[in-house]
Amino acid sequence: MISYLIEQLRQLIAGASRGELVLAALALCATCAWLALALRAWRARVALGRRMRVASRAELDAERVLGDRGYAVIARQPRTTWQLVVDGASVAVDVRADLLVSRRGRRFVAEVKSGPVATRLETPATRRQLLEYALAYSAHGVLLVDMERRRVHEIRVPGLRPSRAPGRLRLAALAVTVTALAVIALAWLER
Length: 191
Description:
about 190 residues; alpha+beta; Lambda Exonuclease, Chain A; 5-stranded mixed beta sheet; two-stranded antiparallel ribbon; 7 strands
């Protein structure tokens, strides 16, 4: 079969003009380039799918690792909006972490990492991500969950404190306090 195809190709080449051969060579090169790009895109899709499956599996395993250490999952893939000021204008930036967890009344953002490089704080991308989470979520700390070693590292940024209760909660607490004091004062005056 292959020898037949080679013979047919020889006959085509022998009967073709120089211009036809150049056009055929260009068409062959273009086809090979297109196939190479298509193969590259396919391999990238396959690799991305594999990474997504590994990350998803790691996040499920991380919930068990965190649970074994006393953390309770509050939210999976929690989103928040972080306000930045650029040249005087407020810009909203959306942020999404892996997990929001709590332990002993304290709230933490958990970042799940798998792989030997991503779990190291020496890796700039990991460091920047943890710092962004610490700022955006105003939690008590950030947890780096190293799924390679099944370890949980608590990361705190010196100088950052978790935000207080949102304004509505503070206002409600103030209203309850004022009401309670008013009731006590009225009861005392009626005596």
